[in-house]
């Protein structure tokens, strides 16, 4: 297979949802179809196994949430699928936002009874901002839920999407009979058995024919005909370009737990979902089929074993091929690095690979060279855009609770921040360190990991900050900037890249500051362009 074909066959995507909608179950069923795992339950039991051997995962197990983002790759038909798993828990949302910089499309899972939930809204708004193609899977059709049309309305209104159903349920809950597949024009009957043979699909070329009545009964057939007519009137026809541009979102119905509607979803997905897309850098747009390698780090995973402190940096390949032992340029450090054991990820294992293609994720062993957002190239000095830090929602001073371990604490904080666990701000006035997080849970994770991985102890102290605003002084008038710095000195800090940050205690303060010092521009993410 040549380079272009390798790119064209890749599908790199994320599955996002509010916790409990069925993301893990759907992921597992997709892996089953790909032959990547042999039995249902493998994904979850894998999680628990890890939990038994690593302290950090113990937290995950106790809390019942998935903390870490992982990559699951498998082949299905002629496609290479890369699923980037994302933690659903809101306290780890930033991890998910960063993963969304590395996907080419997403599948959103929605619970048919609960409808659109809070976390779904947040994550979808990030996808919309980035114009990521979105496909919607409405799950748990074996249960009583909302009416399919009402639910599609809700998806449109709350998520700001324009949907078009690609499949449609025949009944629901107790009366759930199956799915009419508008894409393939056939019916898949539900037997309520999760080991159901996936081959017995009934072809219905003409929904007006008697065959439909025989298969689902007269009443359900009449209802389905009315519904399909309504769909034709109300929803636009599927248009791939509109989907790829982020302007149209196909919807599927099914039950992940019963392995129902999942094959339909996957078969359609691999046809319509985008292969790796071009990505913007600070100097130019980089296309996947360019010969030279480029890629960026979107995730750093700590090695949980305190004896082996090396970490794994996850690199998304944007263009060219990544080859083992070939020298690459680490743009930020202006350093040449070679990697003798780059990892590729499969469902249940990782393995050393000689060559990876655009869309793939490689895991590089790292002893401290990488930070989130770092770019690798073959010499070109450019940086990929779109991996900003968002303002944290919680802020606390971090204090050293064991004076003998000051060095360990510093190193631990430094490395955890490189991993993107939280954000560190150093106050200009007195050099005190402030940790900002998206959720309160991260403080516990940090404390736990500092102790178990670095042998350091910390305590926290409240710091009443509402929002971090990045300050770009370049355009500011000199006097105005000096005045701003003098008046706000107690609230000025530097992030870990040395950028100036104003820690504001309320929206009111932000407004007042903006009107008083109009030339001092405040930004709510670290990337101001
Ligand atoms: P998440 O990753 O989005 O958080 O959700 P997950 O897949 O873990 O699913 C959450 C719960 O919903 C699980 O039940 C799962 O079995 C159930 N579920 C997933 N898909 C379906 C479906 O199509 N129909 C029905 N009825 N249930 C579904 P649980 O009781 O929390 O966990 P478990 O003990 O069953 O594993």
UniProtKB/TrEMBL annotation:
It is found in: Cytoplasm. Coiled coil: none annotated. GTP binds at residues 17-24, 85-89, 139-142. GO terms for molecular function: GTP binding; GTPase activity; translation release factor activity, codon nonspecific; translation release factor activity, codon specific. Residues 8-277 form the Tr-type G domain. Keywords: Cytoplasm, GTP-binding, Nucleotide-binding, Protein biosynthesis. One of its GO terms (biological process) is regulation of translational termination. Gene3D superfamilies: P-loop containing nucleotide triphosphate hydrolases (3.40.50.300), Peptide chain release factor 3, domain III (3.30.70.3280). One of its GO terms (cellular component) is cytosol. Belongs to the TRAFAC class translation factor GTPase superfamily. Classic translation factor GTPase family. PrfC subfamily. Increases the formation of ribosomal termination complexes and stimulates activities of RF-1 and RF-2. It binds guanine nucleotides and has strong preference for UGA stop codons. It may interact directly with the ribosome. The stimulation of RF-1 and RF-2 is significantly reduced by GTP and GDP, but not by GMP. This is Peptide chain release factor 3.
